[in-house]
Each structure stands twice: as C-alpha cells, then as structure tokens.
Write a structure and sequence with these properties.
Two copies of one chain form a homodimer.
Chain A: H1 5-12, H2 16-24, E1 32-33, E2 39-40, H3 43-57, H4 62-74, H5 79-119
Antiparallel strand pairs in A: 1-2
Chain A binds a DNA duplex through residues 4-6, 15-18, 20-21, 25, 34, 36-39, 61-63.
DNA sequence: ATACAACCTAAACCTAAGTTGAGGTCAAGG
DNA sequence: CCTTGACCTCAACTTAGGTTTAGGTTGTAT
C-alpha cells in the first residue's frame, strides 16, 4: 500500500510542511516520487518514518537523525555505528524518564501545597 | 544565605546568561540587588527557582512560566489559577512519561534488531 | 470549461531560547 | 596603581525547527 504526503501527515499527526522540511533535510532518502513529482510513501517508508519520529520525539536533533538515516542507506558496514547510536539514545531516554519523574514529583508536591493553602 | 548569579548558575547547571535572560523575561520579579546592582538570590529565590526550572524542564514555555510567576506575586486571589495550571502540567508530564516509555521500547526493539543483524 | 483539492518548489519569514560582544563598574590582591 | 575577576546593560546575532507565500501542475467533479 502507498500513501501520499497528506495521508502520512494525518497518520502521524504531523503537518505536510513538516514532512517536506524533513525530506529537504535529507531524512527521507528512500522516498519515491510519482511521474508528476508527488512523494510516495510505501510501507517500508512508513516503518522507517516510525523510528525517525521516535528519535525526533526523544529529542535527537535532525542532523543526528540524518546521520543515522545516512548510515542506514549505506549497508551493513555501518551496523556498529547505528547500534552504538541507538544505545546512546537508550541511555539518554532512560535519564529523561528519571528526570521527568522527579519533576513530576515536585509538581505534585506543589499541587499539594497549593491545595493546603487554599483550604486555609 | 545569599548567592550571586554565578553561584546559582553552578548550582543549577545553567549559564549566567540564561539566568539573566530569564530575569529579563520577568521570571524573577522577587530578585533583590546589591547597591552596585548585582543580583542577589536568597534562599526563597532558590526555592522558587527550583519550581521554575521544574516547569521549564518539563517543556513549559517561558511566557507561561511568567504567568505562573506573576500569579504567585499577586497573593492568594490567584491560588485557584495556579493550582489549575499545575494540574494541567501534571497531566502533560504524565503523558510525556508514557510517550517516552513507548519510544524507549521502540528504541530497544531497534537495538535488538540491529544486534541480530550483526550476528549474521 | 472550470473550479477545486492535493500535490510541487524556492525563498522569505517567524519564534523561542538563548549567546555574544562592546563598553562599563567595583573590590581585592600584588 | 593597576590588573584581574565577577558582576552589569543593551543591542545584535545565532540556531533549530519549522511555517508561509507566491507561483505552478495535475486530476477529478460539476
């Protein structure tokens, strides 16, 4: 099954211009085009997009994602680099979660304090 | 105990210019100054900074934080608004954590796939 | 035929969150 | 004295991550 840019945007809750911007930044080197020039996302492209968004949503800058994408296109030689990058990202995300949980606790304490103040 | 901007920067792992920028954005209306004009952070300021950073680190934009700070300076009339804002933020952070955990899982699956590919 | 919807490009524009640089004040130490 | 370090202001600059605009093509429905 193939998808247009508009469909992909809806599926992933992105804007069309965002997808075009990512393409221009080199994040979709695997994208095909129709004869008239429209971008075509196939199932593989959607699969790949998923991991790209995953990296983006955990705070990886676009140029680093591009590095990963470029490595992915070069073949098996770069498997070690890609693995290393994902492991680094895993560590980063684990820290993110811990930090965010700490901040959650602080916010909840603030809520409790505010509620106590309001009752007085 | 009082602290200079440099000390506060070190304690909280921020740059001095970041702290000055926040002050210019109106995030520190409670800040005192020495006669020569240097910013003085007292214990209360540090306490307040902690909650400000907590909001900032969970993705709240500076102008929203300023709203919260402004409310905090006005007295008890704004307790309900502040409470509501913190509750909204709590919800946002809970979602953040869930989303990040999902992304973590995907990254870990990617790691597993890459490791399988490398063994072949 | 024509109008509309969905796609395209290239370039300009925008916003948030800072950083940098020039020029200045003050206190302490050698 | 004078230099060094830590602070100050104000304005200009930067960067990332987009959005917007203007102008153009194509396919389908009226």
């Amino acid at each position: 099954m193939n998808y247009t840019i508009g469909q992909v945007a809806k599926i992933n809750h992105l804007s069309i211009s965002q997808l075009r911007y990512y393409d221009n930044q080199g994040l979709f080197p695997f994208l095909k085009r129709t004869e008239k020039g429209d971008r075509v996302f196939d199932e593989d492209a959607l699969k790949f997009l998923e991991i790209i968004l995953c990296l983006k949503n955990t705070g990886m800058p676009i140029k680093d994602i591009k590095q990963f994408v470029d490595w992915s296109m070069t073949g098996e030689d770069t498997l070690p680099q890609r693995l290393e990058m994902m492991k680094q990202q895993e560590i980063k995300v684990l820290h993110q979660i811990r930090d965010t949980e700490e901040n959650l606790t602080k916010i909840q304490q603030k809520i409790a304090r505010l509620e106590r103040e309001m009752k007085k």
